[in-house]
């Protein structure tokens, strides 16, 4: 799966959140300093050419919507991060969060509960 650059990801985050939008609406959702509308329009057309977003035509204007699902991109993104930064080891990733992110004990307990629930679900199958 294609890795999105910062601006592409920013536009996709907006489209995933609002479901569909015209270029002007995408621009309005972007933080300051806003890029020129022509830049947003170019990125949107590139994403559409790559099959990541689609559009509905309203005369000469287009309303864009995501084709790529956020969950699919997130899975690919984290798999790439796991492989590139943690040697493919979920244990190293979890250790990073535990050791270097100073997670509060309640969040650590929630993580432990999720791990135990996953183990329990695996045993049932």
UniProtKB/TrEMBL annotation:
It holds the Pfam family Penicillinase_R. Keywords: DNA-binding, Transcription, Transcription regulation. InterPro entries: BlaI_family, WH-like_DNA-bd_sf, WH_DNA-bd_sf. GO terms for molecular function: DNA binding. It comes from the Bacteria. One of its GO terms (biological process) is negative regulation of DNA-templated transcription. Transmembrane segments: none annotated. Belongs to the BlaI transcriptional regulatory family. This is Transcriptional regulator. The lineage of its organism: Bacteria, Pseudomonadati, Bacteroidota, Saprospiria, Saprospirales.
């Amino acid at each position: 799966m294609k890795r999105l650059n910062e601006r592409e990801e920013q536009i996709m985050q907006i489209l995933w959140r609002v479901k569909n939008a015209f270029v002007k609406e995408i621009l309005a959702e972007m933080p300051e300093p806003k890029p020129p509308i022509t830049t947003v329009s170019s990125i949107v057309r590139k994403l559409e050419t790559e099959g990541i977003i689609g559009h509905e035509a309203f005369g000469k204007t287009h309303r864009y919507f995501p084709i790529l699902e956020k969950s699919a991109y997130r899975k690919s993104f984290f798999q790439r991060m796991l492989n590139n930064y943690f040697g493919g080891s979920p244990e190293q990733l979890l250790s990073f969060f535990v050791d270097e992110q100073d997670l509060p004990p309640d969040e650590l307990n929630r993580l432990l509960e999720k791990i135990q629930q996953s183990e329990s679900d695996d045993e049932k199958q």
